[in-house]
Fold this sequence. Notes:
The complex is a heterodimer. By secondary structure, chain A is of the alpha/beta class. Chain A folds into 2 domains: about 5-220, 3-Layer(aba) Sandwich (Rossmann fold); about 225-290, Alpha-Beta Plaits, CATH 3.30.70. Chain A has helices at about 45-50, 90-105, 110-120, 120-125, 135-145, 165-180, 195, 215-225, 235-245, 270-275, 290-300; strands spanning about 5-15, 15-25, 25-30, 30-35, 60-65, 75-80, 155, 185-190, 200-205, 210-215, 225-230, 250-255, 260, 280-290. In chain A, a hairpin with a 2-residue loop joins strand 9 (about 200-205) and strand 10 (about 210-215). Chain A is elongated, with a radius of gyration of 24 Å. Chain B has helices spanning about 1-10, 15-40, 45-80, 80-85, 90-125, 130-165, 165-185, 190, 200-205, 225-250; strands at about 210, 215-220. Chain B has one domain. Helix content of chain B is about 75%, strand content about 0%. Chain B has a two-stranded antiparallel ribbon with strand order 1-2. Chain B is mainly alpha-helical. In chain B, helix 2 (about 15-40) runs parallel beside helix 5 (about 90-125), helix 3 (about 45-80) packs parallel to helix 6 (about 130-165) and helix 5 runs antiparallel to helix 6. Chain B is built from 10 helices and 2 strands; from the N terminus they run H-H-H-H-H-H-H-H-H-E-E-H. The interface of A and B includes residues 53, 73, 81, 86 and 103 of A.
Amino acid sequence: MDYAVRTHNLTKTYKGIPVVNKLNINIKKGEIYGFLGQNGAGKTTTLRMMMGLIKASNGEIELFGQSQYSRDIYKRIGSMIEYPGFYPNLTAEENLEIHRRMIGIENKEYIKEALDVSGLDINEVKGKKVKNFSLGMKQRLGIARAMLHKPELLILDEPTNGLDPIGIKEIRETLINLKNNNGITILISSHLLSEIEHLATEIGIIHKGVLYEELDYKELQKRNKKYLKIRVSDDKKACFLLETKLGISDFEVSEKNIVRIYEGYDDSSRIAKTLIQNEVDLHEMAISVDNLEDYFVRLTGGHNHV
Amino acid sequence: MYNVMYCEFLKLKKSYFYLLLLIGICFFPALMCLGWLGQGAYVYWNRYIFQVEQMTYLFSGTILYVLIAAYIYSREFSCGAANTLFSYPVSRAKIFMAKFIIIVLFIFGAIILQLLLTILGGLLLPHEPLTMAIMEEHLKINLLVLLLQCSLLPVAILITLLSRNIIMPIIYGAFVTIVNVCIMGLNLDSVAKYIPTLYPITTLFHSFTTDSQGKMEFVHFTLSNYSISIAAITFIVSMALCIIYYLKTDID
Lengths: 306, 252
């Protein structure tokens, strides 16, 4: 199997405290890898280590199958780590021109192509200094910069920050197209589960510096539980009835007056009848499947996102 | 390397850097020209140029050169582009050296431009004939001063790298200027030879003598071996620290 990135026991400690702890991630070529974790989970630190911005305290990073590599390998990688910083006195094209030269790309056309792909309106940004850009425009320009040299691996840290819903959708489509048409491997980190859910083919869940799970999205869908979701007038009474009258014990109150029943839901009419007969109003009843958000909460025992 | 250096120039495009630099360069030549014009004084070139050089190296030179160095090294940190800069397929050593060379070029350009502006200002006033020898002498002294200024640059760069902003280096520049002015004002020559920040100005002072008629003449002056050693050690130690720090530091 060909991997774009692998880490072996990758560790970063600050003053003896591990921020990233023995991380082993495996990103296959041509995949979109969603690197998921709450704020402060260690995502950005991991990406920084991959890009050589910070040194690992321990462990190893393998890029394109090489564990010993020169800086030339970064010609094959495009990245946007955290907030995309630019020279504010320069225009978008001038910023990209610096990038083009630093990467060593001869063809100036790449700048125009990158601006096109990122969805920035070339006429709107022409002659406009980056300091006058909105956050969304800067984010798009950051993506344009990361893609400018047509890298084999794209590392994007929270790329949709500051984008409006349409912008998020456009970026998502761009990334999927890059994967499908150009075979680019994409590593995208996010604390927004919905963002990863719509994009990733592989998922790595990091929590408090530890990789909890790494699985492909199809596998995740298989693992996710099916349940009967009911919205009632009194969740306490409903729970009591489920246990005593119906003998159901695998259920949980997910929100106030919303109960998820994981067993015996095939006989939903009996459940409904019992509740109504015992004066519990039933407002909603539907079969549902856990989504990534639920899975994440179950796995980490925490909140879905901050 | 050429590309990295060229990019350093591109980054400064349309910034206030050039305006500040131009003000710093023009200030004393313009002040001197206007002052002498007001007095209706006759220009004796050595004295005229010396006074501009003296004021520059005593009052504004250190701060201006520290400002150039700090601006160029702190730029990516202040605008948040450090993540990108250090992700390029270019070694940190190359980036560091490119920035250093650009700073030296800027200081060289500033010194030469200031000398030219000073001469230009003098030409507008009643003056003695300007000879090639006068220009060569001052060029030589200024190049020596440039060399001595360069030996001090890594100290300012190190402060910039540690603080990752422009404020601390400017405080350092202001502090050095005040110390220099105090020591020169008190004529503490015995102390001056131990302080490398004073070498540019003491070199300038000792390169001219005034004869009985008040006319300034150029004299050949060399720093003592002791002072040269201090300058060299200052440069080597601070440069080594800068490079080690630049190569090793985490960008976060």
